[in-house]
Amino acid sequence: MKDRPSVAPPGVPKARVKALRAAFAATMRGAGYLKDAKKQRLETGNWVSGARIDEIIKSSYNAPRPVVAQLTAIQMELQKLKRERKMRRKKKKK
């Protein structure tokens, strides 16, 4: 399940969200699912619960502005480096 979030639209009743989260957690821990995932060589051990995702999002929105600015600068630099590396690879192929 790496990098494949499951989301629901805004306004979903809390009881429904709770049921969906419980079902997802049960699936991720289920013997049948784990057996099939192993056959397909899928990662199964690093999933993050919906409650934890909520915590991460809320703390992100409450981050101090200087931290957000610094993280944005880092992200932009990483994107720049990725573009440069991609360009170097294209030049090597020619």
Number of domains: 2
Strand content: under 5%
Q: Give the structural class.
A: mainly alpha
Helical fraction: over 70%
Query: H/E order of the elements?
Result: HHHH
What's the Cα radius of gyration? 19 Å
Mean pLDDT: 89
Distance between the termini: 37 Å
Tally of individual helices: 4
Low-confidence stretches: none
Largest sheet: none
**Would you report the number of β strands?**
0
Query: What overall geometry do the principal axes of the alpha carbons give?
Result: flat
Describe it.
This protein has helices at 14-29, 31-39, 50-61, 65-93. It is built from 4 helices and no strands. The chain starts with 13 loop residues before the first helix and ends with a helix. The protein has 2 domains: 1-62, no CATH class; 63-94. The chain is flat. The protein is mostly helical and 94 residues long. The mean pLDDT is 89.
